[in-house]
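Task: sequence design from structure.
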């Protein structure tokens, strides 16, 4: 049983509170991603699960076992590090078999496990090489293979792709995803890259200043962020966030000091004069005529394209605006037009608390 449960976990280093009353439930076989900016506590939390850091308060369970006071070697976990952590004097086979040899497992059992995992990872031809003879991607696969042969209850990944170039990151990311489908072991994965989190995680835990900001599926976090922070942290290109005020009788939204007025979308009940933020994803903006009612006047500042995706960067009375599309843009720098947000996709946040206001 490899479910992971953290209950009210807190950790301080001296006077600094790094992890603050964190509770997380990770189901058996689930791939859970911990994400947040630098200093949010995600790597510390992973080390706490691994038993490499003690906690000041709370409980940690792996399966049905309370492992709070157990050392790392007693927790039945395997960890894949950012730096690979391979023994330079050992061959690939020796690195992968090291933990099994320490446990004095039979030689034939070790050989069979190593051969099976090497085939799974495409390492068969590399088993007699030293780490210095391998590429970065091959070294990371060896580090994963060393973890897999141990057959642990939980895999822990600490930013394993951050040392790889962009193309290799995409490749190894896919390999980890396929491995999880095949093996089904509970996995906890730390990254600062929200694209990695969105494409790999079945569950994502967003951390901020040592606390859980929100937990959910990738699309939950993208479509229904609980806060301004989560809305801005998840998604690329970034969400457009506009300051506004609710108008008289709670039926309109006033932007740019009242010079732009648009109707409050259906389903919202917000009192007059409340200060809010409007969040709109770049793909939920439509271009209309500059004089269209409720449209935001905008002018093209720059156009960025990756070939398959186009982002138009605009200047408007409410600041910089981003529009994204799968279609090639015919706009040119300096072109003027109006922007109309999709009312069904508009997110509204209270400006004081920065929490999302729900419809209804």
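Answer:
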């Amino acid at each position: 049983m490899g479910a992971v449960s953290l209950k009210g976990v807190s950790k301080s280093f001296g006077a600094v509170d790094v992890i603050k009353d964190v509770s997380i439930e990770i189901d058996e076989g689930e791939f859970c991603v911990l994400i947040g900016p630098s200093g949010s506590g995600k790597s510390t939390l992973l080390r706490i699960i691994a038993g490499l850091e003690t906690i000041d308060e709370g409980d940690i369970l792996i399966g049905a076992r309370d492992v709070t006071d157990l050392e790392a070697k007693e927790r039945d976990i395997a960890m894949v590090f950012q730096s690979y952590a391979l023994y330079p004097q050992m061959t690939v086979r020796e690195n992968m078999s090291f933990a099994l040899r320490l446990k004095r497992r039979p030689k034939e059992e070790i050989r069979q496990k190593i051969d099976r995992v090497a085939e799974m990872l495409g390492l068969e031809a590399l088993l007699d090489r030293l780490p210095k003879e391998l590429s970065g991607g091959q070294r990371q696969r060896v580090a994963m293979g060393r973890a897999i042969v141990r057959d642990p209850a939980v895999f822990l990944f600490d930013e394993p792709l951050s040392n790889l170039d962009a193309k290799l990151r995409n490749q190894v990311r896919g390999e980890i995803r396929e491995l999880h489908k095949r093996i089904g072991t509970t996995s906890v994965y730390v990254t600062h890259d929200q694209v990695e989190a969105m494409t790999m995680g079945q569950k994502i835990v967003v951390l901020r200043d040592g606390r859980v900001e929100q937990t959910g599926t990738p699309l939950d976090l993208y479509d229904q962020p609980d806060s301004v922070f989560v809305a801005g942290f998840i998604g690329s290109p970034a969400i457009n966030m506009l300051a506004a005020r609710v108008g008289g009788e709670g039926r309109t939204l006033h932007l740019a000091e009242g010079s732009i007025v648009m109707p409050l979308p259906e389903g919202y009940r917000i009192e007059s004069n409340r200060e809010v933020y409007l969040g709109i994803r770049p793909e939920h903006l439509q271009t209309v005529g500059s004089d269209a009612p409720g449209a935001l006047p905008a002018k093209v500042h720059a156009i960025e394209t990756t070939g398959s995706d186009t982002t138009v960067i605009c200047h408007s009375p409410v600041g910089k605006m981003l529009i994204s599309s799968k279609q090639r843009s015919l706009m040119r720098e300096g072109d003027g037009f109006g922007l109309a947000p999709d009312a069904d996709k508009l997110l509204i946040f209270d400006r004081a608390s920065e929490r999302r206001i729900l419809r209804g």
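The chain has a mean pLDDT of 92.
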